[in-house]
Amino acid sequence: MSEVTIEGKDGSFAVYTAVPDVTPAPGIVVAQEIFGVNQVMRDTCDWLATQGFVAVCPDLFWRIEPGIQLTDQSKPEWDRAFELFGLFDVDKGIEDMNTTLATLRAHEVCNGKAGTLGYCLGGKLAYLMATRSDADCNVGYYGVGLGDLLGEADRITKPLMLHIAEKDAFSSAEEIEKVRQGLGGNDNVTIHVYDGNDHAFAREGGEHYDEAAAKLANDRSVKFFRENLG
What we know:
- Helix 1 links the parallel strand 3 and strand 4.
- The chain has an eight-stranded mixed sheet with strand order 1-2-4-3-5-6-7-8, sandwiched between helices.
- 37% of the residues lie in helices and 22% in strands.
- The chain has a single domain (2-229), classed as Rossmann fold.
- The chain is of the alpha/beta class.
- It has helices at residues 39-50, 75-87, 90-106, 121-132, 173-183, 211-229; strands spanning 2-7, 12-18, 25-31, 54-58, 110-119, 138-141, 160-165, 189-194.
- The longest helix is centred in the C-terminal third of the chain and has 19 residues, at 211-229.
- Residues 13-227 form the Dienelactone hydrolase domain.
């Protein structure tokens, strides 16, 4: 596992990289939460590598401050995370995700097929990669603000899986239903709602972590990636 540097349109940024034992292999670009490329994101990449994927996680906050690594364990870190979320340029983030995707596909350890996976803010970006990129497939966990992005839904032409927390504190029952109705007619979209679960139910060690729900969602994601990137 290592960190490499990618040259983007506006400058260079760091990308955490985890490579499986057997290559070339399918690739996955992991989109961070609002805490930066922290231990949780690096562990996620390492786990994906054990499942047979080349997993990379770009530092999407580099334009604001490179190398951000926060946790969800203190109020000052939460305050900083929300500050970063407010400063973040989503369109530039998608630009960096696409740059990372293209770089990954061209690398010798990748077999040329690649998708995306994101959580929270990253879940929103995974949805937008389904509408604004040629990624082979995309998976989003409890993406924020999806109800405002349904105008792009007709651009989804590759498989997209969304994991939605029924009791998401950063969403509402009305928005969840809006997303389900807005995407329900697209055969490329699969939506799973986790009853009784709150935002970040898959963040191990987090306040709302649910082991059973996380395992179910992760198993579904791995199967989905294997089916669409195999």
